[in-house]
Amino acid sequence: MASMDVTVMGAGVFGLSVAYACAARGAKVRVIDPHGVGAGSSGGLVGALAPHVPENWNDKKAFQFDSLIMAEGFWARVAELSGRDPGYARSGRLQPIADARTLELAHQRAETAKTLWQGKASWTVRPRSEFDDWAPQSPTGYLIHDTLTARMHPRNACSALAGAVEALGGQIIIGDAPTEGAVVWATGYAGLQALSEERGKTVGNGVKGQAMLLRFAAQDRPQLFADALHIVPHGDGTVAIGSTSERDFDDSKSTDIQLDEIHARALAAFPVLQGAEILERWAGVRPRAKSRAPMLGGYPDRPGHFIANGGFKIGFGMAPKVGQVMADLVLDGQDAIPEGFRVEVNL
């Protein structure tokens, strides 16, 4: 009999969340990663847990909504078990409204949010004059304020998840180790490449992103979103800015003029950040499944093996629910994976 019930290959946010959910149900769990906890795209800087627009509701948006609502309790329990702060806060978000048409849409979405978000969060249109200098300027004089958006410190969150798995009796192994029991492949970009090679066609790929960390104290302020940029204040007195999306790249970890351009755009949109010290520049490759949705379910032609991949830009926001549904599948054979998230969609 195997000494482990579940082996998770990959210590990014999907792998660790699946391991944590399984361990929380009493399973004996081993996580293996040759590079370390949060060594891939989960070790980035931004940590924006931003919801989809509250309209044209579908399984993907509903799944993400459920996960974002679960997040507060999920991360609080992870922090309690690990003794480590994952940096979670449901801080909300402000977005400028560019023109009359966008303002009309924002009001419509405020109405649909009342139903779709079930009274658990709000999406409202508010005058810019209600806010201080932290808020972005808006051509219409109005901002979208949602209370569902949350923040996460990616590296701290991965560390806290690993600590929670260990607190529940699980193993975190950096390097090589044998797999035992059910095997969950949460190996990110490399996993999508391997699966594409196995299937002889593109199942997914990687999209490089670049981000920047500034020293600026705005711990209790909402996130900002303008000019396609996320501005995320973290609880440690830093602010993250990101990110680029690059399909063609030679060096997955290099930063370049594209990040300088993002920095310049951020300062133009948010002058309050002028003069803030740059603490770190980061680049990494995010796993993007062909469907653009998370890729969850059984591994093709490998009984007892499973896939949890394709978090792309929304991995941390999806992680609590991904852990739950994968634990349901791996431990109990209960399949609650939305149709659009299934592995077969990408094959």
Main attributes of the structure:
eight-stranded mixed beta sheet; six-stranded mixed beta sheet; 347 residues; alpha/beta; 32% helix; globular; FAD/NAD(P)-binding domain; single chain
Short summary:
The chain is an alpha/beta fold.
Give a structural overview:
With 347 residues, the chain is of the alpha/beta class. It has a domain at 6-87 and 150-201 and 290-346: FAD/NAD(P)-binding domain (3-Layer(bba) Sandwich), CATH 3.50.50.60. Helices cover 32% and strands 24% of the residues. It has helices spanning 13-24, 59-82, 100-116, 154-167, 188-199, 257-269, 315-332, and strands at 6-9, 29-33, 48-49, 93-96, 123-127, 142-146, 150-151, 171-174, 182-185, 204-215, 223-226, 229-233, 238-242, 277-289, 295-298, 305-309. The chain has an eight-stranded mixed beta sheet with strand order 5-6-4-11-12-13-10-14, with helices on both faces. The chain has a six-stranded mixed beta sheet with strand order 8-2-1-9-16-15, sandwiched between helices. The chain is globular and about 60 Å long. The two termini are 33 Å apart.
